[in-house]
Amino acid sequence: MHQIIHGNIIEGLKHNYLIALLGMVLLYQFILYVMNRLFDKTYYNILHHPLTIKLILVLILLFWILRNISVYPFTALAP
Q1: pTM above the 0.90 mark?
Q2: Contact 61, 74 (CB under 8 A)
Q3: Each residue of 10-33: pLDDT tens digit?
Q4: Which residues contact 4 (CB under 8 A, 6 or more apart)?
Q5: I need a surface site. Which of 6, 40, 58, 66 has the fewest CB within 10 A?
Q6: For the chain, how many helices (H) and strands (E)?
Q7: How far is CA 19 from CA 27, 36, 66, in A?
């Protein structure tokens, strides 16, 4: 987060790729909020579906495990 706050976006993403997932989730939440307010209609939030929550949890756990493996493709995940 330190690198991103100081304007080094690429370096910040290299330290933790899950920041991109966080950015997408926050952007989706913001767009949905604006659409609900602007059009005065309630759109379904896919992030509130139990399957989506489980999928995100699995992605986080896989990332956590794979970044600690000392073999080439996975060493790129570690800072």
Answers
A1: no
A2: no
A3: 888 888 889 989 999 999 999 999
A4: 12, 13, 19
A5: 40
A6: 5, 0
A7: 12, 26, 16
